[in-house]
Design a protein that fits this description.
This protein has 481 residues and is α+β, with helices and mostly antiparallel strands. The chain contains 11 helices and 17 strands. It has a 17-stranded mixed sheet that branches. Strand 11 and strand 12 form a beta hairpin. The longest helix is centred in the first third of the chain and has 19 residues.
Length: 481
Amino acid sequence: MKNQKMKGVVALATLAAIAATDLSVVARFGIAKENVDWSKVAWTPAKSTSPWKEWNWNPKKEGRSWKYVEELSQAEKDYWQIDGRWSHEIPRDKEYPKLPEERYPFKAPYSGEELSALGEAGGGGTVMCGLQSHSGYHISRTKDRNGVISKSDTICNTIRHYKTFAEQLYKFKPGQETGAYLVVVANPPESAGTVSLSKFYKDGPGVSKLEDRWAYLPSLRRVRRISGASGSDYIPGSVATYDDVFLRDFWKYDSKVIGVDILYQAVNSKKPYGPIAGPYRADGGIETYVVLNKPVKNGYYLSHWISWHEKKTGHIIRQEQWDRKGNFKKVSEKGLSGQVLYFNKLIYPWSEGVKGGLTENGAERRAILHGGGPEQVWDVEQDVQVYSIPDTPDKKISYEKFGNLDAYAGKETWKQLFQPQRIENPFVKPVPVVKFEAKDFPPTPPLYREKFSKFRKISLPAEILQKIKKDEQSKRGLFKS
């Protein structure tokens, strides 16, 4: 057993050496022609010129919580500040032709493309999360169509070579490395001890470089290089594709704001951003922009997808997908109700991220909008659900033994984060045990069939409809106040 542990540590040392090989690349990045210091450019919350503190709309009285953009009155348009153009209708940046003419962090009115960028800048569509460095346990449970629950527990370390989203957009050249992501698998048991390292590169006009990937397989006791995957491929053991998690850059698709909506729940909670002031209306709802997205190239595995962006930050709280034939494929919801360790202080991510600007070490603060959880994904095609445990689970774990589930260190360097002794893994430290059984699984996310029916065709088999009805009757009471 001791020899096996030592070999595991040696393998991690190999991965650490691989991770460090391109450390000097940061110093080689070019500066934009106008010599702007993009490391100082950060998003800040928009100040509305409207006298309203919240949308002057009463869903109970009006009979619905949503409106198409074309239905908005002038006063409502002043409040929401929407640019209703598709991405392809917006002039492009002469120096960065794939990007919109107005540069990040943008100003109101917001287009669908800009909201998609803001969602990405907050970790909405990528695991390149955190404030330069991030270490955490990712604990999730999967329920298949037969109700069988399986574990998927990993320990993840992330590092980014940029401090702000503007740096990633305007300072990096296509093909240059943007960061790395290391995962240690703890569960399921048959995969325990597997370690993977992925290094990511910026895409651009005529340049699309697949990520470099390496894996340590316990059965071989060696590090192997593995080929990059297609964006439509499922991540092993997951209902997410590589595009869902890593590769769907906002400028690669066409986006348009189609309406506005008020959500009164997400991830089976009435407080998906935690027990804090700020994101909620007086009636408890969350105001959102609703954005329709379509692929630019033919043959993509999705025909379109729709995202709900929280109004004050642009954080993606809900997303739905349709396959290339137009069949309803997947729905996901993501909250930020778990507390994370942030500069040695426990915080709720939304209350910190909404401040905007830069942190004490110069990183963009809104990046914290990735952390906290929970997240729920329902793959309708496979009838499989995944629930990611929030970082402050109801069934408490021993923080003295394991530490916090997510730590956004902020000050750690690339080299420090990938040191073998720093990587918390099964060879050194076990993953927290969170008791979560079939009865604890929340019901599937609501479908809201009546909303935006022009763009949302939802047709499900009778078997699944019956499951939904039964689930909602028995479990919708799991709501938290």
